[in-house]
Amino acid sequence: MTLGFLARAVATTAKISVPTLVEAARGTLDASTCDERLAEWSRRLLVDARIELTVRGLELVASDENFVVMSNHQSLYDIPVLFQALQRRIRMVAKRELFRVPVWGRAMRAAGFIEVDRDNHERALESLRRAADAIESGTDIWISPEGTRSRDGSLQAFRKGGFHLALDASARILPVSIDGTRSVLRAGDSTVHPGAKVSVTVHEPLDTRAYADDLEALMQRVRGAIAAGLTSPRP
Q1: Residue 92's beta-bridge partner residues?
Q2: 101 DSSP assignment
Q3: Strands (E), the chain
Q4: What does the pLDDT read at residue 2?
Q5: d(Cα 142, Cα 162) in Å, to the nearest integer?
Q6: Residue 69, CB half-sphere, CA atoms under 13 Å: how many?
Q7: Which residues fall within 8 angstroms of residue 105, CB to CB, at 6 or more apart?
Q8: Which of 21, 41, 43, 86 has CA atoms 20 to 30 A from the CA of 76?
Q9: R_g over Cα of the chain
Q10: Looking at residue 45, what is its pLDDT?
Q11: What is the separation, in whole angstroms, between the first and last Cα of the chain?
Q12: pLDDT interval class at 121 (50, 70, 90)
């Protein structure tokens, strides 16, 4: 059964990756097409894994504003869950390992996802500049301030890069809590457990300008908001 779930997930991912690469090579790929494919991809993954998704707080998100979206990170399923929960144009700043996945990694670049190399300071800064440009052009950027998936479900230490991005882009931060995806697929595991209940809680956006001189206070405010939406937050 597990192999069946994984095989369907791979097939669903390939279904959007291959045409995305072809169209990118031809110069015919556009953001709206990517949005449609990502919406269908994420919907299909949640249906196949029989995830029951509950979303709270969407009324706090202005449709005419773009944000730096920050959430906790427990599972690879966080990404499709976010697409389905927010229903917005979102792209991710993700570690370079994800871009090494055959076909999928190249399709991510073509679709506008942003690769960050934390071992190279100059490349990391360039990634943040590209993310700021994307926000300016009408795209939400998702960043996991933890930097990687939590193996035990607790909130890990936050990195500063995403907060600098929000400040430099003059963008508000949208804190989001994702609860339950660890029950679907844990970090480092290859077993998909269907039928999980997943909740997404969207919190009040934070104006970064109020924290221009106190980055630590901004980080703690975002951390507190995310922790408040988790079943067993351990900040």
Answers
A1: 142
A2: S
A3: 52-56, 68-71, 90-95, 114-116, 140-143, 173-179, 197-202
A4: 56
A5: 9
A6: 32
A7: 98, 99
A8: 21
A9: 17
A10: 95
A11: 35
A12: confident
- The one-letter amino acid at 49: A
Res 110: pLDDT: 84
Question: In whole angstroms, what is the distance from residue 52 CA to residue 67 CA?
Answer: 26
Six token digits for residue 177 = 């809590």
So where are the chain's domains?
A: 2-228
Q: Is 27 left (phi over 0), alpha (psi -120 to 50) or beta?
A: left
Residue written as token pair 């249906």? 47
Residue 5 β-bridge partners: none
81 backbone φψ class: left, alpha, beta (φ>0; ψ -120 to 50): alpha
- The answer to whether residue 124 scores a pLDDT higher than 50 is yes
Instruction: Tell me the two tokens of residue 188.
Output: 């480092």
pLDDT tens digits for range 51-79: 999 999 999 999 999 999 999 999 999 99
* Distance in angstroms (rounded) separating the CA atoms of residues 198 and 95: 24
Give residue-wise pLDDT tens across range 223-235. Answer: 999 999 998 544 4
Evaluated on CA atoms 83, 88, 93, 99, the torsion sign reads: positive
Strands (E), 46-172: 52-56, 68-71, 90-95, 114-116, 140-143
Both tokens of 107, joined, read: 């399709």
For the cut 80, the answer to whether the pLDDT of residue 4 exceeds it is no
Q: What is the CATH number of domain 2-228?
A: 3.40.1130.10
Tokens of 101: 């996945």
